[in-house]
Amino acid sequence: MSSLSRAEILARLAPIIAKSLHIDAARVTEDAYLSDLGAESLDLIEITMGIEEAFDIWVPEKSILQTAREVYGEGVLEKEGVLTQEGKDLLRARMPELSAESLSGEVTMSAVNREFMRVSGWVRMIESFVDATPQVCAACGGPLGRALAYKRKCVACGTENALKPGEEVNKRWVLDYQAATARSAAQ
Ligand SMILES: [Zn+2]
Question: Near ion ligand 1, which residues have CB within 5 Å?
Fold first, then answer.
């Protein structure tokens, strides 16, 4: 299992973002926001595709909050466009890179969506999907070729190894978080 460091991820991510936005890669720091760098929704799609290709991972279309809302149901994590305490706790657990200020007081969904544009969050997201995706062949343990249509062919035996859908990784995280917080509340 070869894991990438955050610095390695950023070094590979910065040129992808820079190319899409036609900016200098040096501007892509962990503290930068993609929205401030000029990213619009089409750029985000292009950047996401570039990330999937560069890291051999499957990035979900939904944000972690959208997936969490499906698990928790409406009105639990967010009410009338504002995060509830439960919503804040979940995001704090999921996004340790968030500053304390960004989750204090009334936190609107547009403020949350802005935080989702922070480069450090994208680095952490890539890290979690790389870690959740098998890096060797499930059949023989051999090395895998580059991903094509969300599959990686084993160089040794030819078995097609499917990438782990990011959506599944996120949902697993939400369910584990929910179980852990329910346990600690019961104690
Ligand atoms: Zn194999």
Answer: 137, 139-140, 142, 154, 156-157, 159
